[in-house]
Amino acid sequence: MKVGIIGLGLIGGSLGLGLRSRGHYILGISRHQETCTLACDKGIADEASVDFSLIQDAEVVFICTPIGAILPTVEKLQPILSPNTILTDVGSVKSAVVNAVTPLWSNFIGGHPMAGTAEQGITAAKPDLFPGTRYVLTPTEHTPSQAQKTVTELVQSLETEVIICPPEAHDQAVAWISHLPVFVSSSLIAASLQETDPEVAQLAQKLASSGFRDTSRVGGGNPELGVMMAKYNKEAVLRSLQVYQEQLETIKQVIEAENWDVLEMMLGQTKGARSRYNMTR
Ligand code: NAP
After folding, report:
1. Which helix (H) or strand (E) holds 61?
2. What average pLDDT does the segment 191-216 reach?
3. Which residue pairs, CB below 8 angstroms and at least 24 apart, start in 211-219?
4. Average pLDDT, stretch 16-32?
5. Residue 91 and residue 97: Cα distance in Å, rounded?
6. How many C-beta atoms lie closer than 10 Å to residue 232's C-beta?
7. H/E element, 235
């Protein structure tokens, strides 16, 4: 199948490597000629160009740009592609993308690979990024069944488990397991930095080990990603933060009341419930 990929970064490049090694013909689009050359050299694409007309005959096009560039990309594609071309995206937020793109391109299905690394750009692309991971597709009542079937088969060929859900459910779910943790973790670092005694502050930094490493990791990540989560998934992020704030308040009250049995019960419940989260990687 002729597959177009726009945005040859971590996700776009890894899709190119994975799909090309499974026999698909990959047409890559980048904003930079050097990236196009590198994409062909690294086996990410069979052909690559800065000119969108390269993908006019693609049967499926994956838009792998940052979220804010997805809609402008669809607008640029409109005069180039045939209406039969199936469009999909890989953005980490779905309602905002699906609601904006569907009126412009009916042959569209939103997607979100639940795979990634902390690195970015074409040099971060890996052939084995997807096998063993989940790939969310978010069809709506407007999504053509053939688009869903074709994209499902393509991403399943990368050895992913396809999860189908509505865009809104996806966004609330990722707010809980991906976006809220960033703001909780960032707040943990910010709160620790508010220690007013310089000796204690220095000691805390010296003593920090595995617990702080685990809980501060996502708060110490790329700020642009955090802003993207809050900007494009604002409602779900705010709802999660509100519930989290209430939960913290409850814990605070239990400790103030020295209600140790209740505290133990609460911690026991979360210890038991953690295994329900199916963390693959
Ligand atoms: P990335 O490595 O930075 O790749 C994005 C690529 O998009 C860039 O390499 C660039 O490619 C192109 N691009 C950047 N800004 C652009 C703009 N303003 N207009 C058009 N193209 C632009 O980022 P990524 O991690 O692959 O993320 C791409 C998408 O995947 C995002 O929508 C993100 O939400 C989603 N996603 C990311 C992860 C993750 O863990 N990183 C996981 C799942 C989904 P060229 O230089 O070749 O033009």
Report:
1. strand 60-63
2. 97
3. 215/185, 215/188, 216/185, 216/188, 216/189, 217/185, 218/181, 218/182, 218/185, 219/182, 219/183, 219/184, 219/185, 219/186, 219/187, 219/188, 219/189
4. 98
5. 8
6. 21
7. helix 234-256
Ligand 1 mutation target, pool 5, 10, 37, 129, most atoms within 8 A of CB: 10
Predicted TM-score (pTM) above 0.90: yes
d(CA 111, CA 68): 15
Q: Is 172 in the pocket of ligand 1 (CB under 6 A)?
A: no
3-state secondary structure of 23: coil
- C-alpha distances (whole Å) from 176 to each of 45, 46, 160, 183 are 35, 39, 22, 11
pLDDT at 117 over 90: no
> What average pLDDT does this structure show over 240-262?
98
